[in-house]
What does this fold into?
Amino acid sequence: MRPVAVVSTAQRQEPELSGLTEVELMAPLIEKARSAVGLTQADIGFTCSGSSDFLAGQAFSFVMTLDAVGPVPPIAESHVEMDGAWALYEAWVKLQIGEIDTALVYSYGKSSPGSIRDVLATQLDPYYVAPLWPDSWALGALQARVLLEGGVVSERRMAEIAARSQSHAAGNANAVRAGTPTVDDLLDTAFVADPLRPHDCAATADGGVAVVLAADDRAGDLSDRPAWIRGIDHRIDAHHFGVRDLVAAPSAALAARHAGLGSDRVDIAELHSPFTTSEHLLTDALGLDEAAVTINPSGGALAGDTLMASGLMRIAEVADRISAGTADRGVAHASSGPWLQQNLVCVMGAD
It folds into this structure.
């Protein structure tokens, strides 16, 4: 496998970015990521983006956002209608082929114009589930109830995860939910979708992220401490709810195994968990020892969740800490779909 590393990142996340177009959001982030390693678009071998035209409300909206990249003269470019983590996977495959040595990956999303809770219902099975129009919190609550009644998780455990997230997020300028609440404080709040409380659900946000990848010696030339991708894999569970196991995350466990997560220790883990129950399931599926691994040092999606970018942000968070020398090995996770239907696991290290 050809060595590929994350050599620079840039991200921005806020509760609401009104009056700001996607181009205006992404142009400074893309420029920051490229210039941090002394590159211009002419030096980038391949560009890949992740976003949702449905979310933007306009077909081929990603084409217009290319103005933030600089597509003239023509560039080699691709787009995935997915979280940017899957765009990074496509770029990683392109680098493996050996035709290029550098790649730019970016993704973005704006949730504030509408109700993401309701919009996400449109991705459900069009025959049996979508007509019922269950919002994402309702589905999360259904899974939480199954987990609670099965003894897989407790309300206190869920509150402990939320408290940890908010505490870690206090040092993250891009977090939209942070603080130092006690577990009892959180348990004293009212339900928003029984048995979920506000802190159990991801904090929706607007934002974007850009990442530069480089292969072989090129990575070492661009960064003093590249975050090498040591393994990456993505898997998917069945779309039909009736055949899903709600008390486990089998595709996440499979992706972790194929990414080589269990081959060595990890210092940090950034998990794209839209609910506290998701984080509990992912911690178990990935075999993470909470006593030895710092989970979601950024606060994770519970502290700020930008649809179509949160997964790539998790990769950027791990890469930043490896490049800064505060971690030697980490794992980043991205998810999409209800109940952790799709999962991508990326293992990174300093050497």
